[in-house]
Amino acid sequence: MKATNAIICAIILSMASRIVVDTSVFISALLGPWGPSRTLVRRCLLGDYQPLMGNVLFCEYESVISREAILSKCPLTSSEIAALLDAFLSVSEWVNIYYAWRPNLRDEGNNHLIELAIAGNAKILVTNNIKDFQGTDLLLPNLTILKPEQLIRS
After folding, report:
1. Which among 1, 16, 101 is positioned nearest to 52, based on CA atoms?
2. What CATH number is given to the structural domain containing 119?
3. Shortest CA distance to 107 belongs to which of 17, 23, 50?
4. Strands 93-94 and 49-53, sheet pairing
5. For the chain, what is the domain count?
6. Residue 39: exposure state from Cβ atoms within 10 A (0-12, 13-18, ≥19)
7. What secondary structure does DSSP assign to the chain, as a single string?
8. Is 122 part of a structural domain of the chain?
């Protein structure tokens, strides 16, 4: 019985943390040859973290990575970007959101990230824009908003 409990504890501890990766982090990973955003995406691909994906976030990723301003700064070709996105999506868990309440963030465009995190039971939302998530009308004690470097250091 003790061996079974030890195995269960080991499995739970080894499970990847469920996280939401904001578009700003994915784009930073594309643009920079190194850094915390790229490290975080790499660790998602290795299974250290379980990224969550939803319809709105997926559409946002696709929209932003196809912008000329991003493509001109990115050292990767369009086909390499598409391959990286495909790889990231292959390790992401798709989450359906069945409600439409709004956390009332200053930037309305970020509300979907909070909804995705809650629907997918994520404990962490990773973004380069921490201040955009402050001042919400909702208290979310089980969700931590972190920069990539903060998550990597923890």
Report:
1. 16
2. 3.40.50.1010
3. 23
4. parallel
5. 1
6. middle
7. -HHHHHHHHHHHHHSPEEEEE-HHHHHHHHH-SSSHHHHHHHHHHTTSEEEEE-HHHHHHHHHHHT-HHHHHH-SS-HHHHHHHHHHHHHHSEE-----------SSGGGHHHHHHHHHTT-SEEE-S-GGGGSS-SS--TT-EEE-HHHHHH-
8. yes
Is residue 10 included in any domain, yes or no? no
Structure tokens belonging to residue 113: 């990230």
Beta bridge partner(s), residue 49? 17
Contact 30, 84 (CB under 8 A): yes
The gap between the terminal CA atoms of the chain, to the nearest Å, is 33
- What is the pLDDT tens value at each position of the chain, 154 positions in all? 455 444 433 343 345 799 999 999 999 999 988 899 999 999 999 999 999 999 999 999 999 999 999 999 999 999 999 999 999 999 999 999 887 666 777 777 888 999 999 999 999 999 999 888 876 666 778 899 999 999 999 8
Residue 9 included in any domain: no
Q: Indicate whether 90 belongs to any domain.
A: yes
Q: Are strands 17-21 and 144-146 parallel, antiparallel or unpaired?
A: unpaired
Domain encompassing residue 62: 16-153
